[in-house]
Amino acid sequence: MTRNQVGGSRGAARPSDASEGRGAAQRAAAAQDHERPVLEVDDACVTFSRRGAEPVHAVDHISLSMAPGSIVGLVGESGSGKSTLAKCIVGMQPLDSGSIRVNGMDVRQVAKLRGHERAGVVQMVFQDPYSSLNPRMKVGEAIGEVLDTYEDLDGAQRRSSVNELLDLVRLPAGIGDEYPSQLSGGMRQRIAVARCLAARPSLIVADEITSALDVSVQAVVLNLISSLHRELGFSMLFISHNLAAVRYISEDILVMHTGRIVERGNAEAIVRHPRDPYTRSLVSAIPSLDDAGRDVLYDPQWVAKQRRAVDGGEIR
Fold it and tell me: Other CB atoms closer than 10 Å to residue 137's CB: what's the count?
């Protein structure tokens, strides 16, 4: 498996001269596929009922789309509905209404696929890499297990492909003989990324993949994702409560609050000129010397004050 295979599509062979007309049609179809959003969420809703309390609208009429080859950040505090939306996208949580399509395929149809066909549509990297790895399986075997779902490799080819994936995530080949418990949190997260890349998915959903890591290790993982994106050109929905991390890794940002998208746009524009009061609270929560010890992210009075200022025309 080559680096191009990891990041690219499975593609078709070049047509012969005799089939030039058919080849033109194929190229036109491929161009159309490239223009089609890799992710389309249309009026998605998920509501959880609670005994003796009002229902929770975890995903409240959300619509969004992602261009192929982009990294889009989804940011919001805990309980805003980010992880519920992520589970809906990968088919782990059914929608009450609305639809979600990955590469034009409804996620309900994706769930009916088997083996490499399903694995190649969408993959998720979870917050806790240890719980997503088999503690009794060496990490090289865990990566090779994914390769076996769509490739018939002999032992030497399998080891070569595993080593290449380890190299992609900046780990030495010898790591493949270690167990998850023998690795640091950052190394385990890179193994999880390698397993994801092994499936060559159209879309990667990264759900809080740096939140359980030390700050220095977070930087390593973020730099790795950024480097791999430049090299492989994959599509990723990067989910985090950390606006600074989302700003660093993403081209565009979606801000989610109480189940709704309250603001969306270019990452730098949102951070420099936030319009929604909740987004302002997230920006204000980015650590600085001036605001040392102050946390407005979970301060509902501050958010309410900002909303009143906006409604009254004091903030534009």
Answer: 14
Domain ranges in the chain are: 3-8+35-271, 274-316
The angle formed by the CA atoms of residues 199, 205 and 209, to the nearest 5 degrees, is 105
pLDDT at 309 over 70: no
Does residue 301 surpass a pLDDT of 70?
no
Q: What is the pTM of this model?
A: 0.78
Domain at 3-8+35-271, CATH class: alpha beta
Question: What does 243-309 look like in DSSP terms, one character per residue?
Answer: HHHHHHH-SEEEEEETTEEEEEEEHHHHHHS--SHHHHHHHHTS--STTTT---TT-HHHHHHHHHH
**Distance in angstroms (rounded) separating the CA atoms of residues 51 and 57:** 14
130: helix, strand or coil: coil
